[in-house]
Structures are given as structure tokens and as C-alpha cells.
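Record type: monomer structure entry
Structure origin: computed from sequence
Chain ID: A
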Amino acid sequence: MADNKNTQATDVNEQIKIRMDKLKALQDAGKDPFQITKYDVTHHTDEIRAIYEAHEKELLGDRPAVNTEGLDEQQAREAVNADYNERRAIMDASPIEVSFAGRMMFKRVMGKASFCNIADLKGKMQAYISKDAIGEEAYADFKKSDIGDIFGVKGFIFRTKTGEISVHVEELTLLSKSLQVLPEKFHGITDTDMRYRQRYVDLIMNPEVKDTFVKRSKIIKEIRNFLDGRNFMEVETPTLVSNAGGAAARPFETHYNALNEDVKLRISLELYLKRLIVGGLERVYEIGRVYRNEGVDTRHNPEFTLMELYQAYTDYEGMMELTESMFRHLAQTVCGTTKITYNGTEIDLGKPFRRLTMNDAIKEYAGVDFDTIKTDEEAKALAKERGIEFEERHTKGDIINLFFEEYCEENLIQPTFIMDHPLAISPLTKKKPSDPEKVERFELFINTWEMCNAYSELNDPIDQRERFAQQDKNAENGDEEAQHTDEDFLNALAVGMPPTGGIGYGIDRLVMLLTDSPAIRDVLLFPTMKPLDSDKKVSKEVSAPAEATQAAPEVEEKIDFSNVQIEPLFQDQVDFDTFSKSDFRAVKVKECEAVKKSKKLLKFVLDDGTGVDRVILSGIHEYYEPEELVGKTCIAITNLPPRAMMGIDSCGMLISAVYHENGEEKLHLLMVDPHIPAGAKLY
């Protein structure tokens, strides 16, 4: 395997060298493509097809198809050729001249004439290039061109005998030379890590990826159109803040040198937008990046796009109407239908969205009526009975939320508004006048995902101060995601905020839904990735491709074990038969994600060689992010009885090396040679 990789690297380096030589030859001949500054593009590929089809319909619309009935094979061929030539003559008599540009993705050279495919933003277009049309010298240069080169093409449109609309090239201009080798021609790149790290290559090779991001842009455009139609005003608020509030999340921290002040990256847009409602801007929204210091999984990225909007003189009922209308509008305008499909499941956004209180949802899916539970102690006892983990600081309201997450979320496939949350988990929300233990809040769930979160906004400064005080206590008790008292925001509320409805939408998750994308990284152009040690080497190769064959000498890493302390060895001996009962196997990590509501646990989906996925939970999130473990080969004990952790059965144990260094516990997950197959037994 290693020899094969070395051979591939050598081949690529040789190809890069050849491309560099071609560039030098062009430069020496006074044809340096990098000196060209602009090119007149009159059409994209989709426009070229459309205008030719319209022109063809105008000139040939009444012309009947050739009739080959009763003719032998030779006669039929001659009749078809004659019909094609007549059609070409009619169309070529009034040619449509076009100029377009793009990257060459395919080339077929055939003596004095050749074909190539040029890809632009809108698709691909076949170009027919003949020596007679562009000249001998230009044709010779084209024959030396490489896949990935960027060309400007001028010519007229025609349809080939095979029926493909193409451009007959009259002038061909090399606009940029590709010095790197693209992946295999037709199949794109399938390595997900490479796709995310080199999104520019992914966009070139995989047209469906480009389509996803074009659709993402359209979704955001249509959101703006919808809100503009309702007289909302788009605004911008700070990203660097002294108090990161408005959500339950751990912020990123940084330092502002000019003021010698520690600041944070915002985790929400809420508190500043509400200040604007106080200021009289009655309908405001912002689409912007927010940052939460959390793990990476299929639905979470540390930086993501959030939209929040606030409307004076309405409540959470008004936010429900707006949300339902906007989702229906987006589905219709972007997808062309209100019935969308995600991972094979049809989701109907055209029907009225179901409305269900959180307590009623728990009653329906868990068979527990929390309206009859009066105290925190009763709620905790019920949680213990059902095997739901909680922290000592948790109240009845927290337990209700844990029950909802455990029993209800997985059932919420069709659009459902979950309403009337517990007060304890909603510090910025108005209490329900009919039940002060609950608040006027809803979350929209689709495909088991929380799509948005909305409130009748709390505008009582006295109540708000009390709730901030409780959040401060939670922070003192170890809750890293608790909010803190914001005195300026309290002052704004004291000035007076009208009754207001507010809502926040995760744009990335919405794009996932409307584009049928399996992971959040598939809808982020540049998702957060753990840096690789090899990145520096790669960057050097990219900046100087001609020198890629000169490998840098490897420097052996010096490891200091002088401050390491290990646990004392066991004194009790175990007989061989007892030891051999533990089934140690090599396993491949297929998927890895953080377990919700757990700071320590990672959930692994493993290939153990049996053909059936094995799930193991491991408390190593402090040491690893999920993304860096996918694809690794590890060692697991596979015959331990299932153990329930956070409501998930963990079927086995992954092996790690644990020790102490300078009094601090360290851990390394045992990862082995990837050549070892899944299921290989350790003896």
C-alpha cells in the first residue's frame, strides 16, 4: 500500500513538472496566460442552450422528423445524414455568436479536429475545435493543454449529429494555466476529508456540491425577500462583545489589545436586536455568524449562520404564523414544491404545522404527565426510575426538558411546534399568564431536528434581573453555558420595550433540510477542520509545484517522559483462561459524534467485521474532537454486556492509555495500523 502511494505521488509530481514546463514554453513564446486581465463573457452555458433551442424552434419548428420507414440500414443512414445537413444549413445561415469561459474538464483530440467540455457556473458545454477554424498555431497550443486549464471561447452554436448542442470555436484563449492535477476525470472526489479541506476542488469535480451552494444562496435571498415583504429592516450588530448572552452556550474568548480588555465572540444576536426594539425599530432581523465553543458533529459547527428577528406588538403566536408561512414560501420558491424529501422521507410543509405543548408531547411519547408532578424531588425520582441522567442542580423544569429530549424528539418528523416550555430553561421568555411555571415559547421540529426557537419576549426588567441572578448561580455551580447579568440590557428594558415576539433560525440546518444534505459540513463552504501536520508540507508543494519531488527530511520527534506517572501494576495475577474470555478486536470508526447534553461522551459507530454496526460510547471528548477519529483503526473489547449511557446502549469498550503528567491526567486512544482489517482478533 505504501509503495502504491509513493508511486502515485511520484506520478503526480512528474505531471506537475510537465505542466510547469508547458507554462514556461508559453511564457517564452510571449503567451503568458497569467498576464490576461479580463475576458468578455456574453453568455453562460445554460443561456447558450436556451437561446439555441428557441432559435431552432423558430426556424425548424414545423419541420417534420425524417421518415426512415421501409428503408434499409444504408438508406436510413443516408436519409438521416441528409436531413441533418439540411437542418445545419438552415441554422448556420443565421448563426448565433457567443462568448463564454470556464475550466476544461474533458478533451478528445482527433487529428485536425477535437472536442472538449468547458464548465462554468451554470454547467458544461461541448466545444468543437478545428485546425481550419482557429489556425494551426492555436490548434497546436490547444493539443498541449491540460485538464483544468481555463479557456475563453468564442464561436457560433450548433447541434451535433448526436443531438448535443455545442459551440463551433472560432477563437480560443488560454486564460489561466492549471499547474495542479485534478482528481480522476469523471467520478469526482469521494474522500470526505479532502472534499471539506479543498472545497475548491470539490466544487470543480462534483456538480451536485456546486448546486447545493447555489441553492443555499437562493434560500438566503428568499428569506430576505419574504421579510422585506413584511416590512422588516435588516441590521448589523457587534460580533465582539463583553457579555455573550442570548443563548445557553460556551463562548470563545479573546483579548482586545487596544483597550486591554477580555472580550468574547457572540453566541447569539438576541440582546442587541432587542435593544433596537426598545429604540423604536419595530421590525428588525439579522443574518450573521455566531460562535459557540462546542464540538463538531453532523449538525453542529463552532461557527454557523444564525438569523434572528424581532417584531414589536406581537407574541409567540405571531412568530408561529410567520415561521410556517416562511418555511412554506422557501420550499415552494427554492424547491418548487411544499412536499420535500429528506433521506428518503417525505416531509409536507404545505399542511398546517402541528402544535403540541412540551408536557403533552411527553405524555404522548413517554406516558408521563408532568402537570401532576409538583416538586423537584418527585421529578428527579421519576428520572432515576427511567434511567435519565441529570445533575444535582437540575430542577423540575430541567428534568422535563431531559424527558422531552429522550422520548419525544425522535418522533417529530413532520413539522411540529413544541410549545410552553418550563420557566427554568427559558430565562428570556414571558411567563404564561395562565401558568407561571411555563413560558410562551416554542421550538419548531422537523425531521427530529430543532429548526428554530421563539418567545414572547420578556420585557419586565425586574423579572429579567431575577432570572439573570439565577443564571449567575448556575454559572457558579459549574454550568459553563449559563448566561450572565447584562446591566446595559436591563437598563434598556427599564427604558421600556413593547410586547415583542422574537425567533432564531439556524440557517445551516434549514439549508440541510431543503437540499437533502446529510451533514452540516455539506452546506458550509469551509467547515471547521482540525489542522493536519501535513498541511504545511502540502502548502509548500502548492506554492512551488516544480520542487515537489524534493522531499523534506523527516525530523524525529523528541518525547519527554520524565514527568510521567503511571498507575501501580496489579499484584493479583489472572489465569490465562480468565484473560482469554475478553474478546479484543480491531474496529474501524465509521462515524463519531458528541452525545447531546454530555460534555464527556463521544458516540462511535464501529465496523467490527461482522457487517453489523457496533455502537460504543466513550468519555474522551475532553481529549478528542469527533472529526479527527473518523476512519481510524482502534481496539475494543466486544463481548461486554450493553451498558446504558445517556439513554444509549454502549456495546463494548474502546481501549485507551491513561497516565498522569505533572499531576494532570492524560489519555491517548489506542489507534493502530490501518492495514489491520476490522474484526481482527488480538491474542
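Annotation 1: The domain at 564-669 is CATH 2.40.50.140 (OB fold (Dihydrolipoamide Acetyltransferase, E2P)).
Annotation 2: Residues 537-542, 544-552 have pLDDT under 50 and may be disordered.
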